[in-house]
């Protein structure tokens, strides 16, 4: 394992759920990890070696530069930057999502672009969502727009920061089984079993699955990967709507009726034109 002091990663939104799993994965990879989170870390996370936490609500945009400068001053130049934040306030969801997911991401990248260590293994990873392409009905419009815009941010900075040796990639998970949600799914077996049935992999995606992909993208093994957005949904998006409906309705074994070629009506414009040509 490399000296932890030689690899510095900053995780935005790393005190809960998938962010917490990402922090653990990077620590296991030997990174020194700086974490920005709105909430305090759990006791187990706070005791992790080579991890320091900064409390910051990204809606307080005037405080972002000072916190970033303090992180660089204390932990040194960056190698990797991972974004997992989203708006969870009770105010205007539209403005909050734009400010937290988009404006804060842009501010942080622009402020830190010159603070990466010189070398080829530098990267930015942005966690997006399948809601950037599909409609997730339990989420508001602002969430969908924010995730779609993040995908374009990935593309833009991959081109702009490539010459600086910084790779920029994204991950778009479907629903994630987190520590906080495990009890809910275990108590709702019918829903859990449905998820495992319709996913080709036969299981739900976990926070650790996302963290493993982040670990890869923040490693030399991904040295030629940039501008990519990896869908992490267990393969469910490969299935057509008809296939999913038949599976849910338990109609998998019923043969579909072969479609018959319908003859054009006698009064169709096609037949009239054909007769005129004769």
Lay out the secondary structure.
Elements: E1 8-12, H1 17-28, E2 32-37, H2 43-46, E3 51-55, H3 64-75, E4 80-83, H4 93-112, E5 122-127, H5 141-161, E6 166-173, E7 176-177, H6 182-187, H7 189-198, E8 205-206, H8 207-217, E9 229-232, H9 241-248, H10 269-277
Parallel strand pairs: 1-2, 1-4, 2-3, 4-5, 5-6, 6-9, 7-8
Helix pairs in contact: 1-8, 4-5
Fold and architecture overview:
This protein is an alpha/beta fold and 278 residues long. The chain has helices spanning 17-28, 43-46, 64-75, 93-112, 141-161, 182-187, 189-198, 207-217, 241-248, 269-277; strands at 8-12, 32-37, 51-55, 80-83, 122-127, 166-173, 176-177, 205-206, 229-232. The strands form two sheets. Strands 3-2-1-4-5-6-9 form a seven-stranded parallel sheet, sandwiched between helices. It starts with 7 loop residues before the first strand and ends with a helix.
